[in-house]
């Protein structure tokens, strides 16, 4: 099988999840990805939950591994002229440059598109920001919780009237933006192939939020009205939403077409609801949704989730459990489709999350673990023609860093 991006070199100067996540998927596709970190390492290293093990026990930094698997890593002080020059030399021999520095910092270090096109006129220069590269918020720092969930209207639109705003989980906006960045880079590579000219890619968390919210935004852009927020007791369709089971687990239904209502009522032993003037038609159910919700809550509280799963499947209904993350990790369908490939690591093999696509007959998979800080500095700089004694001198001057990987 052929890796789709074999022969493509990606230079990544990006931290946290969105930019690195896009580069990780390019590594899965076979690209040679070189990750440039500061001498102290990416801020994402060790920033998320670790297994509960005795102090001093080697552990896998699972989240960092997820977004950085299969890359080669070098440590460079980009804020020093010699360090920035090393990155420019690497960019001259790369096909893609992925960066999440704000444009002003890129220009400060000579890593903006104009500067890098001088040394590589066929480069794809891809920038990931919170809010884009122009406009009144272009210089505003942004993480996904602020730029995507906050200003992108996701939290407000999901908050039921009178309730607290939902607590967002880590990096959901980042990983959605990573897909946007990957798609943009792939399109730009095609343009370079056709025109021979370098391309500038601009992806932001804010823009990704707009696409994520496009079903709501599309209507507002036409009529100028803010969509009303409703509680589950004010939803438009009876068989739409989440219901708590007897064991405090939740089940989610989505059967908005009216034809499902009599089938559901018969299946759950509530045939009387079919002809009840309060619930017999779509308009009647909508008008009496608070009362109907109370009845349905009593109904679903009669059985545990497993029993509802069996009943709903037996009747061909459209539903899904509110799975726990641990259940998702052990889901038979996910495992059959290869969602969670294994990475071999010196500390032992572990599963991770694969790229969310499949290309028939192509070699798409994690190529190995994430690098240690500066693990490949000597190797990569040697490929640039920098002599070993000079690399040692650069390390002594605090311009580059090198680290021996852990033993198997």
Walk me through what this model shows.
There is one protein chain. This protein has 408 residues and is of the alpha/beta class. The protein has 2 domains: 9-214 and 341-401, Crotonobetainyl-coa:carnitine coa-transferase, domain 1 (Rossmann fold, 3-Layer(aba) Sandwich), CATH 3.40.50.10540; 232-329, formyl-coa transferase, domain 3 (2-Layer Sandwich). It is built from 19 helices and 12 strands. It has helices at residues 18-28, 62-68, 81-92, 103-108, 113-119, 144-148, 154-158, 172-195, 205-212, 214-223, 260-267, 272-275, 282-287, 289-300, 305-314, 325-329, 332-336, 377-383, 388-396; strands spanning 9-13, 32-37, 72-76, 96-99, 124-129, 199-204, 240-244, 250-254, 319-321, 342-343, 350-351, 400-401. A 7-stranded mixed sheet has the order 6-5-4-1-2-3-12, sandwiched between helices. It has a 3-stranded antiparallel sheet with strand order 7-8-9, covered by helices on one side. Strand 1, helix 1 (18-28) and strand 2 form a beta-alpha-beta unit. Helix 1 packs across helix 8. The protein is elongated and about 85 Å long. The model has no long low-confidence stretch (mean pLDDT 93).
């Amino acid at each position: 099988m052929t890796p789709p991006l074999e022969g493509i070199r990606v230079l990544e100067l990006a931290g946290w999840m969105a930019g690195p996540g896009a580069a990780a998927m390019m590594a899965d596709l076979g690209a040679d990805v070189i990750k440039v970190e500061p001498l102290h390492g990416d801020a994402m290293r060790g920033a998320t939950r670790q297994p509960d093990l005795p102090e001093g026990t080697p552990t896998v930094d699972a989240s960092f591994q997820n977004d950085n698997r299969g890359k080669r890593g070098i440590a460079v002080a980009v804020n020093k002229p010699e360090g920035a020059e090393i990155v420019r030399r690497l960019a001259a021999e790369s096909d893609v440059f992925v960066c999440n520095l704000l444009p002003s910092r890129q220009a400060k270090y000579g890593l903006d598109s104009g500067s890098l096109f001088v040394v590589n006129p066929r480069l794809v220069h891809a920038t990931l920001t919170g809010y884009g590269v122009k406009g009144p918020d272009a210089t505003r720092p942004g993480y996904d919780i602020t730029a995507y969930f906050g200003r992108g209207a996701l939290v407000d639109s999901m908050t039921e009237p009178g309730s607290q705003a939902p607590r967002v989980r880590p990096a959901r906006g980042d990983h959605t933006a990573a897909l946007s960045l990957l798609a943009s880079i792939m399109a730009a590579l095609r343009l370079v192939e056709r025109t021979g000219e370098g391309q500038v890619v601009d992806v932001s968390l804010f823009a990704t939020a707009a696409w994520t919210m496009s079903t709501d935004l599309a209507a507002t852009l036409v009529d100028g009205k803010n969509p009303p927020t409703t509680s589950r007791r004010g939803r438009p369709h009876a068989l739409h939403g989440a219901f708590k089971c007897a064991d405090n687990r939740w089940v989610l239904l989505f059967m908005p077409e009216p034809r499902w209502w009599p089938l559901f009522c018969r299946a759950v032993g509530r045939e009387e609801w079919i002809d009840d003037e309060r619930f017999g038609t779509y308009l009647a159910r909508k008008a009496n949704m608070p009362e109907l919700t109370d009845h349905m809550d009593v109904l679903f509280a009669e059985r545990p989730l497993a029993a509802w799963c069996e009943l709903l499947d037996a009747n061909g209904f459209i539903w899904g459990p509110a799975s726990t993350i641990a259940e998702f990790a052990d889901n038979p369908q996910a495992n059959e489709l290869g969602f969670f490939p294994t990475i071999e690591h010196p500390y032992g093999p572990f599963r991770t999350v694969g790229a969310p696509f499949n290309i028939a007959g192509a070699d798409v998979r994690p190529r190995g673990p994430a690098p240690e800080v500066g693990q490949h500095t000597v190797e990569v700089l040697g490929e640039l023609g920098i002599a070993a004694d000079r690399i040692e001198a650069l390390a002594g001057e605090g311009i580059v860093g090198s680290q021996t990987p852990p033993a198997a």
